Amino acid sequence: MNKAIKNKIKGLFFGQAIGDALGLATEFLTLEQVQEYYPNGINGYEDIIQDKHRVRWPKGNWTDDTDQFICIAESLIENDGDVDINDIAKRFHEWMTNGGMGIGTNTSNVLRMPEYADNPHLAAEIVWGMSRKRSAPNGALMRNAISCLTSVDDLKKTLVNCKDIAKLTHADPRCIDSCKIMAHIVLSELNQDPIGLDALSKLFIQYDERIEPYLIPFHDKIEDWELSNPQDLGYTLKCLSAGLWAYYFGDSFEDGLMAVLLQGGDADTNGAVAGSLLGLKYGYEAIPKRWIDDLNHKDALNDLYERFMNQIELA
Predict the structure, then answer these.
(1) Distance between CA atoms of 233 and 137, rounded to whole angstroms?
(2) For 140, which of 52, 54, 96, 166 could close a Cys bridge (C-beta 3.0–4.6 Å)?
(3) Phi and psi torsions of 310, nearest 5°
(4) What does DSSP assign to residue 150?
(5) Cis amide prior to 213 (ω within 30 degrees)
(6) DSSP secondary structure string, 156-207?
(7) Backbone torsions φ then ψ of 136, nearest 5 degrees
(8) Half-sphere CA count of 164, side-chain side, radius 13 A
(9) What pLDDT, in 10s, does the model give residues 77-128?
(10) Is 314 helix (H, G, I), strand (E, B) or coil?
(11) How many Å apart are CA 41 and CA 288, to the nearest integer?
C-alpha cells in the first residue's frame, strides 16, 4: 500500500475524530446561537463553550460517534480484518454499559433489547418496527467510515459489510443505504478514481426511493441544507448531505469542516462524517496541526490506525 493511500486512510481516522470533537462546539445549537456564541468562528477545542451539555466532555475529546468507530476498528483488528457481527455487537454493548457517553436514543433502545445478545439484527428490527418503520437516525452513518475499509479492493463485499454493521442498530433502509453511498465515495477515492457528484447521483436510483428527491438537485451552498432545522435534526439523509457537501465543495479540510460545523444542528455527527471524508480526500497531512496536537487521546488513535493498517497489509 503506497504512502498516498496510507495518508488518506490516516486522514479518515483523524478526520473522523477531529470532526466529532470540534463538532461538539455547535452540537444542538441553532444557526443564530452559533453566531452568538462563536462570533469569530472556532479556532480550536479551547473555544468550545461550557454549557450543561458540553461540559460533560473535556475539551478535545471525541464523543459517541468515534467511540463506536473504535469499537468496530478494534473488532476488525482482533479478528484479522474479518467482520464478526456478534463481536462488534458485544463491543457496542460493553461500551454502553461502561458509560456510553452521548449514546443516541435509537442505539440505546436497541442495545437494551433482551434479544440483542443473541440476535442484534432482530433487536434492531424490533425497535425500528416500534417506530412504525419511520425512524431513520444517523447513528449508523456516523461510525461508518471504518466499515468502508473492511474490504478496500472489493466494493460488493464492502457494501455487504456496511449493511451488516449498520443493521446492528439501524434497520431502516435509508440508514443502510446512506452507509453504502459513503462506501462508494471511500473506495473510489482509495482506488484513485474519485466518483463525481453527477455519477454519484445516478447511484441514488438503485437505493431507497426516498434518497433521490432529498439529494437531487444537490445544493452547492451549505446554508441551503438548513442543518439546524429541528424538523429533521439527526436524520440520516441530512447527515449524509452534510458529508457529501463537505467532500464535494470543501476547498480544504479546514474550510469544509468549519462550513459544516458553523451551521449548528447535529454538528458532532455531521462533523464526524464530513471530517472522515475530508480527511480521506485531502489526507492526514492536510489537517491543521493544532487540531491534531490538541486532540485528546491522539496517541491512542494513532496506535489504533497503525494496528489497523497492519491488518490490512497482512490480509
Answers:
(1) 9
(2) 166
(3) -60, -35
(4) S
(5) no
(6) HHHHHHHHHHHTTT---HHHHHHHHHHHHHHHHHHTT-PPPHHHHHHHGGGS
(7) -140, 65
(8) 18
(9) 999 999 999 999 999 999 999 999 999 999 999 999 999 999 999 999 999 9
(10) helix
(11) 15
DSSP 219: P
Count of H helices and E strands in the chain?
A: 15, 0
User: Residue 283 gets which letter from DSSP?
Assistant: -
CA dihedral 98, 306, 275, 261 (to 10 degrees): 50
Q: Within 10 Å of residue 298's Cβ, how many Cβ atoms?
A: 16
Looking at the DSSP assignment, which residues form a beta bridge with residue 137? Answer: 235
Q: How far apart are CA 195 and CA 199, in angstroms?
A: 6
Please give the pLDDT value at position 286.
Answer: 98
Q: Is the Cβ–Cβ distance between 260 and 27 less than 8 Å?
A: no
**pLDDT tens per residue across span 236-269:** 999 999 999 999 999 999 999 999 999 999 999 9
Write down the pLDDT at residue 313: 67
Residue 1 pLDDT:
80
Rounded-to-integer distance, Cα 279 and Cα 58, Å? 23
Are the beta carbons of 298 and 292 closer than 8 angstroms? yes
Judged by DSSP in three states, 74 sits in helix
Residue ranges, the chain, pLDDT below 50: 314-315
CA neighbor of 57 nearest in space, from 28, 108, 20, 94: 20
Distance CA 40, CA 193 (A): 37
Whole-model pTM over 0.90: yes
Handedness of CA 83, 247, 40, 291 (dihedral sign): positive
Q: Which three cell numbers stand for residue 80?
A: 484479522
Outline where DSSP puts E strands in the chain. none
